[in-house]
Amino acid sequence: MPELEWSAPAIGDLTAIIDYISDDNLDAALALLDLIQRQVGQLPDYPKRCRAGRVEGTRELFVPPNYIVIYAESASAVRVLRVLHAAQMWP
């Protein structure tokens, strides 16, 4: 089974999202963090379950209500590249 890896930009994205939400609602921020971590944690078991990404070689996991986890897979790893609000454009 592939390993799960988080890129530095993805960690920064997630930290910024959680910090922003926690300014208004800590419980909502923690719930979103838990949801993202649970869904991303399943990717090594089912790396192809999400749609092909807009950038070749990537896939996109939609996390309700408005977040997209962009990742790439190889035989040895699933690497989370970015965590973005759906309104953001990538790359």
Structure description:
The protein is an alpha+beta fold and 91 residues long. A 5-stranded mixed β-sheet has the order 1-5-4-3-2. Strand 3 and strand 4 form a beta hairpin. The longest helix has 16 residues. It is globular, with a radius of gyration of 13 Å. The model has no long low-confidence stretch (mean pLDDT 94).
Give the key terms.
single chain, alpha+beta, five-stranded mixed β-sheet, 91 residues
Structural class: alpha+beta
Q: Spell the H/E element sequence.
A: EHHEEEE
Helical fraction: 25-40%
Largest sheet: 5 strands, mixed
Number of separate strands:
5
Count of individual helical segments? 2
In percent terms, what proportion of residues is strand?
25-35%
Outline: globular
Quaternary structure annotation? single chain
Low-confidence stretches: none
Integer average pLDDT: 94
Gyration radius, rounded: 13 Å
The strands making up the biggest β-sheet line up spatially as: 1-5-4-3-2
Distance between the termini: 28 Å
